[in-house]
Design brief:
2 copies of one chain form a homodimer. Chain A has about 130 residues and is mostly helical. Chain A has 2 domains: about 60 residues, Arc Repressor Mutant, subunit A; about 35 residues. Chain A is built from 6 helices and 2 strands. The first copy, chain A, binds a DNA duplex (30 and 30 nucleotides) through helix 1 and helix 3.
DNA sequence: ACGAAAAGCCGATTATCAATCGGTGTAATT
DNA sequence: AATTACACCGATTGATAATCGGCTTTTCGT
């Protein structure tokens, strides 16, 4: 428990790319994001490896090359990391509510619209006023 | 922008203590949490210093000793860190809503109760169904 | 089947940051 | 003035991300 999910800048970039277009392999990832950064194939490779060890990526051997796919969705990762923050800093989940309001309070119109829908749906289940 | 707020284990412990009983100084903090850990006064001192540089603590010189107080509330810090996660992983704030639901879905009764209240309050402002 | 190319794997290096503490200088207290 | 209590500087250790070279292994074209 309480394993902190920490992501570096390149790791995050790799995840982003794979959420957009998975599956992919080291070569393609290097072409897509490594070339522009001037980093080697190997760097991309070991980043994929690290993400796999962290269980954020799945992989499958095709011929002798690994093909990677996200093991968690973007929203899943956000949820996980938000949970970790809340659980680390708050004994109960009290803090979540205030955090939510705070963040939501600065949200844009689009988010507020989405929020309305979510709250409406939520009401049907747990709010019985 | 995008300054990641990262807290180590001892740093978090110090924050917790100060949220419970502020203000305090290095000596008292060492007594309260350092002695039990077998760490030196200096270690506590530099942790306070680091937290001050991160603007998570305020301090004031009383005689020649600093007296520290939280510069952010617990909920404020949670909000900040949740925001950072969401902003880092999500272009818009879409992810927040799903993260919220996900975490809330695993919340205990007490949190759900609080949630009902919050949502009810929120509805008055932005939900117009 | 053989050699080149492609890819994984191992290890080394650098950078950042938290944790840790010693030593030194300065300021307060008696 | 001597003692004590700090703060401040710098050094070390440990963890983790980023980086890459080089060796090994697998595949594939001819």
């Amino acid at each position: 428990m309480s394993e902190r999910t920490r992501l570096g800048e390149l790791e995050l970039c790799v995840m982003e790319r794979l959420w957009e277009s998975a599956p992919s392999n080291a070569k393609a990832m290097h072409l897509a994001i490594g070339k522009a950064r001037g980093i080697s194939h190997n760097t991309v490779q070991s980043t994929l490896e690290r993400l796999f060890r962290k269980k954020l990526l799945d992989r499958e051997k095709v011929s002798h090359a690994y093909v990677y796919s996200p093991a968690v969705s973007r929203d899943g990762l956000i949820s996980r990391m938000v949970s970790e923050v809340v659980e680390t800093l708050s004994n109960s989940n009290e803090g979540l509510v205030s955090a939510f309001l705070d963040v939501a309070g600065r949200a844009d119109e689009k988010t507020l619209d989405e929020l309305k829908r979510v709250i409406a749906r939520y009401r049907e289940n747990i709010v019985d006023d």
